[in-house]
Amino acid sequence: MFILLSSAIAPGLALFSYFYLRNQMATEPRKTLFQSFLYGALITFPIMFIQFVLKEEGVFSQPFMANVVFSSTIEEFFKWIVIFAIIYGHIEFDDPYDGILYGASISLGFATVENVLYLLSFGIDTAFIRAMLPVTSHALFGVVMGYYFGKSKFAKNDHATEYLILAFIIPLLLHLAYNTILSFQNVWFYLVAPFMLFLWWLALRKVKLAHQHLVEHLIEQNKYN
């Protein structure tokens, strides 16, 4: 059991540590980040409950609608609403890169609990592929979502609302693409590798841009100090 739980939790911690250590300009309070991780973990249960009820009620007649469209939408919406309702206005969300950290933290909280439950059901044999695909993809969706939240909070113009919308739409489109690829039973393996490479490229580009915005933000702050 210890090995199984370690295998389920380790990928999320490793990914979060990577993005946390990428922030060389400031250190975000670990307590707040841990709380964000817990929020992400907690939303796993209402999401699974809603999915279970709708499945039992036969709301979706087509598996694609249930497993791709609805699943992607509800997961990204819950993550978005937690960041917007709890984190977005928090006093410790005080620079553009923080969005990256909070987005990744909440997403990895969700992905880690989902991973634990999956490995408990299907065994440790699936741990590697779970780490490489679902856990990693959720982390990268969270990075992209957090980037746009950071852009929104520190926007100097009237585009704040636009960035808030993009914080939901862009990760949703990525999630839809990912789940659609997995639905291609015979060829998904050949498609998912280039998609994950693209997802990593996109997320790291957002990380780089967030660093640039952070530097600009610090320079702007120093003008008034």
Automatic annotation (TrEMBL):
- Any one GO MF annotation of this record: peptidase activity
Q: What is its EC number?
A: 3.4.-.-
Record-annotated membrane-spanning stretches: 6-21, 33-54, 66-88, 100-121, 127-149, 161-181, 187-204
Q: Which UniProt keywords apply?
A: Cell membrane, Hydrolase, Membrane, Protease, Transmembrane, Transmembrane helix
InterPro entries the record matches: Peptidase_PrsW_arch/bac, PrsW
- Main localization of the protein? membrane
Q: Which GO terms describe its biological process?
A: proteolysis
* An example Gene Ontology CC term for this record: plasma membrane
UniProt entry tagged with the keyword Hydrolase: yes
Superkingdom of the organism of origin: Bacteria
Key word Transferase present: no
Subcellular localization(s) per the UniProt record: Cell membrane
Q: Which family does it belong to?
A: Belongs to the protease PrsW family.
Q: What does this protein do?
A: Involved in the degradation of specific anti-sigma factors.
Name assigned to this protein: Protease PrsW
